[in-house]
Structure formats: structure tokens, C-alpha cells
Design brief:
By secondary structure, this protein is mainly alpha-helical. Helix 2 packs parallel to helix 4, helix 7 crosses helix 14 and helix 9 packs across helix 10. The longest helix is centred in the N-terminal third of the chain and has 27 residues. It is globular. The termini are far apart.
Length: about 325
């Protein structure tokens, strides 16, 4: 089973999340960062083209042999779908059409969601923005593992299984920790996605729908691009709760690796987050950082000092308006 993790509880913090304070300090020194706010005009077209190409690739899968289908799902289809998931992350911050056109953003997210197969684009925004505003909150930040997860997967082998099953925990955790009534648009989006999945199965067959769904799930688990799930907020260095990754996979993930920069300035599109670091290097260069998501996954599984408990949490104080 491997070594047991050394932690027996989360790291509890009495302070507020650090990003609002750092944002204020940076803007006092570098007010020009505000010029970076707002959507990248090219982003929506990149999303549309990527989605169309991924949908078009489905036709090429239907006559392949099963081993080839699964290899392509892991190495190609899942990577593209994960990129689209992170496009949906950008869209959750209104980076498709800007905050003045919320419905256009939601429709773009639903479109990008189609080849992924797992209906989440509308629901994701409801939880993700609270992850930003209430980072570490024991109730409102559903990015944090539950006590059940931390206690069950507390060994090297357990962490390996937890990483494999990460997409299921990521999807199901909010329903247990912080359930919300579905909105009409959520129901519509799920209905559209399931209808699309059925159409794919009906006209292209089992291999293609498996390629879609298996690729998405595998690329959220034990996969290099999924390393960002762990690299972003798991405490690899005591007292630090957000980490940036400066590596090549940022190119296909809309710079989600620039995570300190993203949390400091969620109104800056991913394409311009490197400029935040360039403008204010004194605030970022000395922070603990990652350079390989594969190494992050390896260290998370093998290092007994890191595991599901390695997160900074805060006591829930209720919503603030």
C-alpha cells in the first residue's frame, strides 16, 4: 500500500485568502495592469475552431480498432478536451464576450462542452467563482477534498487511486459539500449535451462516444495535463496555498498554470497572464512554483508529506455581500 501520509488534518488558517491583499499591493505599484483587463478578442475564435476540429475528428475515429481508439483518446482527444475544459474555465470569467454579454458567454461554453461529453459548463461557473472569492472556505470552496477522501486515500497506493478517480470526486464533491438547486439553464445545457451524446452514439457508434468520454475522464486523472488540479493549491511548501506552473503545457491550457497571477487578477485573460508576471516580477519570482505537472503528480503520490490533507482551509463564516 506504500507509506502513509504524515498529515492527519488540513492546514487551518485564521487569515483571509492572500490574493485580494496582493492585488491591492500590486495595483498600487503597477496600476498599468488594469489595462490588461477584459477578454482577448482572439479567444472566442480559438475556442470555436478547436471545438469544430475536435467534432470533425470524431468521424475519423469510428472505423479504428479499439486499442488505437483508447491510445488516441489518452494522447490526443483527451488533451484537446482538457484544453476545452480550460477554455470553459476562461469563459466562466466572461472571457468569451466580456461581462456585458453573459448569455453569449454561456452559449459559447455550452458549445465548447459538446465534444467533452460531460455536461458541466454552466454549473462550473456557479462553484468556481466562489472558489475564487472564498478560497479555502470549508463549505464554499468545493475544490478542497472532503475528510472522507483524505482519510480513505491516505497512502501511496491510495493517492494513486485518488488521482485516477479525480474526475469523479471533482464532479460529485460539490453535490455533497455545497448542493445547489439546478437552474433552468443548467437543465437545458445537460439536456442538450445528453441529446448530443445520444446522437453521436446513434450515428457514429460506441467507439466514438467512448473516445469522447474516456478521453475526457483519462485526461482529468493520471495524465500530465491534469497535473494542474494538484499543482494549483496543494501545499507543497508550508504556508503557501497557490502555486504557479511555468512550463510548456501552458500553451495548450490557456495559461492556467499562471495560477497566482490568475487568482490575483481574475479579470485578466489567460493570454495576458504572463504580462502580469513580467510587469510585477518582484511579487512572483520568489514564490514557490512548479515547472512540471508530471513531477507534481509523481511527488503528490510518492511524497508522504503531501496528500489530500495538504490544503489550507478556513472556517466558514457565511457569505459576505
Amino acid at each position: 500500500m506504500g507509506a502513509k501520509v504524515s498529515r492527519t488534518d488540513f492546514e487551518w488558517s485564521p487569515t483571509e485568502e492572500p490574493h485580494a491583499t496582493r492585488r491591492k499591493e500590486i495595483l498600487e505599484k503597477h496600476p498599468e495592469i488594469k489595462k490588461l483587463y477584459g477578454p482577448d478578442k482572439n479567444f472566442k475564435w480559438i475556442v470555436v475552431v478547436t471545438t469544430v476540429l475536435q467534432l470533425g475528428s470524431l468521424y475519423l475515429i469510428k472505423d479504428l480498432k479499439w486499442p488505437t481508439v483508447m491510445i488516441l483518446a489518452y494522447c490526443f482527444g483527451g488533451v484537446v478536451n482538457h484544453s476545452l475544459m480550460l477554455a470553459i474555465h476562461e469563459i466562466a470569467h466572461n472571457m468569451g464576450f466580456g461581462p456585458k454579454y453573459p448569455m453569449y458567454n454561456k452559449l459559447l461554453g455550452m458549445f465548447a462542452n459538446l465534444p467533452i461529453g460531460l455536461p458541466f459548463s454552466v454549473t462550473f461557473k456557479h462553484y468556481h467563482l466562489e472558489h475564487h472569492r472564498y478560497q479555502g472556505d470549508e463549505k464554499l470552496d468545493t475544490d478542497i477534498p472532503t475528510y472522507v477522501e483524505a482519510k480513505l486515500f491516505n497512502s501511496t497506493f491510495g493517492k494513486f487511486i485518488w488521482v485516477l478517480l479525480q474526475p469523479f470526486f471533482y464532479a460529485l464533491r460539490p453535490m455533497f459539500v455545497y448542493p445547489k438547486n439546478p437552474t433552468a439553464l443548467e437543465i437545458i445545457s445537460v439536456t442538450i449535451q445528453l441529446a448530443f451524446n445520444y446522437w453521436v452514439y446513434l450515428y457514429f457508434g460506441t467507439k466514438v462516444i467512448t473516445y469522447m468520454l474516456a478521453g475526457s475522464l483519462m485526461a482529468m486523472g493520471l495524465h500530465p495535463v491534469a497535473g494542474h488540479f494538484i499543482s494549483e493549491h496543494y501545499m507543497f511548501h508550508k504556508g503557501y496555498e497557490t502555486y504557479s506552473y511555468y512550463g510548456p503545457l501552458n500553451f495548450i491550457t490557456f495559461n492556467v498554470g499562471y495560477h497566482n497571477e490568475h487568482h490575483d487578477f481574475p479579470f485578466v485573460p489567460g493570454s495576458k497572464l504572463p504580462l502580469v508576471k513580467k510587469i510585477a516580477p518582484e511579487f512572483y519570482d520568489n514564490l514557490p512554483q512548479h515547472h512540471s505537472w508530471t513531477s507534481v503528480l509523481y511527488d503528490f503520490i510518492m511524497d508522504p508529506n503531501i496528500g489530500p490533507y495538504a490544503r489550507i482551509k478556513r472556517k466558514h463564516k457565511g457569505l459576505k455581500y
